Amino acid sequence: MSKWVSSSIVIWFSVFIIQGCTTVESTTHTALDEAIVVLPKTAFIPTSPEQFPIETLYSLLVAEIAASRQQFDITLNNYIDQANVTNDSHIIARTARIAQFFNSRQTSLEMGLRWLQHQPNNREAITLVANAYIELKQPLIALDYTEKLFLLMPPTDYKSAAALVETIANFSKRVGKQTVERLIKRFEVLDNTYPDLTSIKIGLSILHQSQNHLKQAREWADLALKQEPNHTTAVIQDVLLLQQTQQSRLATIKLKAQLEKDPGNHRLRLTYARLLTQTDINQAYEQFTQLSQQVPNHLDIKFSRALVATELKKTTIAIPLFEELLTVNYRSNTTRFYLGYLAELTQQATTALDYYLAVKAGKKRLPAQNRAGKILIQKNELVNASKLFTQLRTDFPNQKEQIYINEADALTNKRLFDSALKLLNQAIEEFPDNISLRRHRAIIYEKQNKLILMENDLRHVLTIDPNNVSVLNDLGYVLATRTQRYEEALKLINQALTLRPEDAAIIDSMGWVVFKLGRITEAISYLQKAFSIFPDPEIAAHLGEALWIKGKKQQAREILKNTLQNNPNSPQIIETIQRLGISL
Length: 584
Hints:
- The protein is built from 33 helices and no strands.
- The chain has helices at residues 2-23, 32-36, 54-68, 72-86, 89-101, 105-118, 123-135, 139-152, 158-171, 177-193, 198-210, 214-227, 232-244, 248-261, 266-276, 281-294, 299-311, 315-327, 332-345, 349-357, 365-378, 382-395, 400-413, 417-430, 435-447, 451-464, 469-482, 486-499, 504-516, 520-533, 537-550, 553-566, 571-580.
């Protein structure tokens, strides 16, 4: 009975591995998955279980059951243990496959190399080792194994090895310049040896593109398209080059035309969907939805669709997608971050906090923990928030100043001005010339009507950076609105406007200070320009007041009324209407 159960589960899990590898591919299409499944994957089935101790059979059975329950760490660890205990080539091969599927690159490489010790010319083992070296950013070694693969293959199978060449190129975009130059030379030798393999030409185009050799990249891409006009990766590379040379519209047109010829090609559609995210997010969502129907088990597509749904605030679609991805531990830290963000959008602060605090590593850890700290402050858990932000400053010393600012902003939003000031005082003592810290403290001083202290901080910034446009405008605007030092304000704002003449906020400041100086017609001209660039309620309030004082009351009413309709809670519009006694 043990033998039958073990064999059945092994077969099931082997099918699971093969299906996963054939359907899940890199979102940038590196041909990695195609290369992985070129050769058959033979499951380990112990036809003679007597050759293994009962402990080994039991451990492997537990591993397979764990996989069915998505306890993948148990699966992999048990197989690693038994590969080490038995040194059996079949168990080692299966461990290598499992490690590759779970993206355990170092383990995949170690087991693949041990597999080759048993079977030096096993093409699947060579392919697996080459892929491991690719993902471990050792492309030259990966190419050694790929060249060996060519020598072991009949010509009819060359395309599968060529797919590895393409993959090496894609994964080599961020390696050193010298490595890329060596790869280019070796790729050119391969192209001379195997001139009919389009993937090698595509690889050369990708490598040249990575070094910004756009002319050579275009030449190799054209050669690839001439050889195979409908080669999917060649078409995609052509589109990416067009996009890089500011020909995005042509890239979109060409890709759409190719999709009409081959509507079932999900790689083309994925590239098209990504192009659309830059120009038409709603159309991009439709493409990702169609993709998810074409390849429902494609995790990268599912993730992309969830991201676009998040951007469009489609929470009822995004949340289940991310939850499903989390169950298979797909990009778990990033997925938890977005689930936290979506929980915030749906007013579930506690759930959001749990997700954010669970982000323990990766690029999303800092933003997740920052958001967690802000939620703790919103919930009045100030001690826990302080501990969290303090730990972040220890863990991310290069971003210490920004973490101070994030914590101060959260305290300020909660109107805990004294706590925010205490924190910023501590930060400025540590970083006395940090402009952002000084500006943030100045904002709080202004809210507390401590204008002398506010001005001191902003003047300090200007001694460090005399042409800091934001500070020039900030100080000028406060002097124009909170004091009668209008000429001084005018000088500061004029300097800012000279440095950034099309900035709506600065144009508004200029309009307001000349209004305060009694130059109403000139003020209206500035304020109308600012409003045309950025129809903000504060600018509308300034423009409405200037028009009203000038006697253009109907125009003033229209601007104030229209802005209030679009922003019914705008304090600037409401205050202006009430102060001037305007009836709309």
